[in-house]
Amino acid sequence: FIYWRLVLALYLVTGGAGFIGSHIVEELVRRGESVRILDNLSTGSKANLSSVMEKVDFHDGDICDPEMLREVFKGVDYVIHLAALSSVVRSIEDPVATTQVNMIGTVQVLLASREAHVKRVVMAATGAAYGDNPVLPRVETQMPDPLSPYALVKLAGEYYGKIFHRLFGLEFVALRFFNVFGPRQNPKSPYTGVMSKFITAYLSGKIPTIFGDGEQSRDFVYVANIVNGTLLACEKPGVAGKVINIGTGVGTTLNQTIKLLNHILGVEVKPQHGPPRLGDVQHSTADISLARAVLGYEPLISFEEGLRRTVAWLRSEMA
Ligand code: NAD
Ligand code: UD1
Q1: 172-177 and 120-126 strand pairing
Q2: I need a labelling partner for 130 at 20 to 30 A (CA). Which of 137, 146, 180, 186 fits?
């Protein structure tokens, strides 16, 4: 038993104190894996890790700092790279900051991974990379068409990873997450995702605002499905160098999400409308055939069940 524990893998989760990262860390800890976290707490928080803090090795630091990375990456087997500024709007306001963290930071993570001889790097990429390509659902073979600095530099990070795979044999997988929602998506951040904003408005008696006519659609994916897909991408053989969509395969318009929330909460809220948001993608639904084929991925929690769980969490947070 002791020998078995000694050969267990060490996972490094960059951005592990964030929304998605904290769920991945919790699942790794639940499985008995060794977990190290690197996070500068710029958008994440230690509170997100309250259930696991004593069982993880937490490092407060910036992915753009190569000296520190060298130390933190020592002995690491798997890198789950999530640290980033995760907002389209923020990237339009400050493209330099987004490029610095999401692109240069990713290159630093790749360099440190190569030097530490890690077994594999799995990076959070984005479904926003497809932009407004008219073909739906989004298949990985489509030509990307980024519409915002965020989508562009995330795409650059993917290409960097693939180049490190080709040049140096570093195992690298990019997962294009679609619109992720769930508990711990920070309701207080102005840059938070739409589901977090809508549910917070409902629960505080405010009117949700739809930017545009509400006919834009997203593949809303509950965070537990993302955890599942990410850990499969660490484990499965033969996926290095690939870019893989992780979503549900179902698109839902914002108008439909309002109807669903009205149904779940037993109310008849009518949203207000504002001008369309700059840099917005109109439709975004994932084709998840590749994830099914090469990862054995299946979305296990439906949009409605995910919404119910998120409502319950936000209720308890606001109480
Ligand atoms: P988040 O903001 O909750 O998490 C990001 C984490 O990275 C935070 O804990 C933050 O403190 C940390 N971080 C930021 N800059 C850092 C730096 N320079 N050094 C170290 N740590 C840093 O966001 P999230 O929604 O959990 O996103 C996680 C990842 O998934 C991001 O890469 C994001 O681009 C990607 N992604 C998210 C979605 C989504 O819908 N939320 C969809 C596609 C991809
Ligand atoms: C989201 C993620 C991004 C990810 C991408 C993948 C966040 C903050 N952004 O981007 O990291 O890479 O999915 O597909 O998690 N909207 C409203 N009212 C609001 C807020 C938003 O109508 O109050 C609209 C937006 O204009 C947009 C849609 O809702 O049309 C979704 O917006 P949002 O959840 O902020 O993020 P995405 O741009 O889809």
Answers
A1: parallel
A2: 186
Between the CA of 314 and the centroid of ligand 1 the distance, in Å, is 20
Q: How far is the CA of 220 from the centre of ligand 2 (A)?
A: 10
Give SS3 for 10.
Answer: strand
| pLDDT beneath 70, residues of the chain | 1-7
Cβ–Cβ < 8 Å for 223, 247:
no
Angle, CA of 222, 33 and 23, to the nearest 5°: 20
Strand partners, 283: 217
pLDDT score, position 150: 98
pLDDT digits (tens, 9 = 90+) for 222-267: 999 999 999 999 999 999 999 999 999 999 999 999 999 999 999 9
Instruction: Look at residue 1 in the predicted model and tell me its pLDDT.
Output: 46
Tokens of residue 232, six digits: 């499969």
Pocket test for ligand 1, best of 42, 181, 185, 243 (most atoms within 8 A of CB): 42
Q: Ligand 1 mean position to 19 CA, how many Å?
A: 7
State which of 152, 154, 155, 179 you would mutate to test the pocket of ligand 2, scoring each by most atoms of that ligand within 8 A of its C-beta: 179
Q: How far apart are CA 162 and CA 268, in angstroms?
A: 48
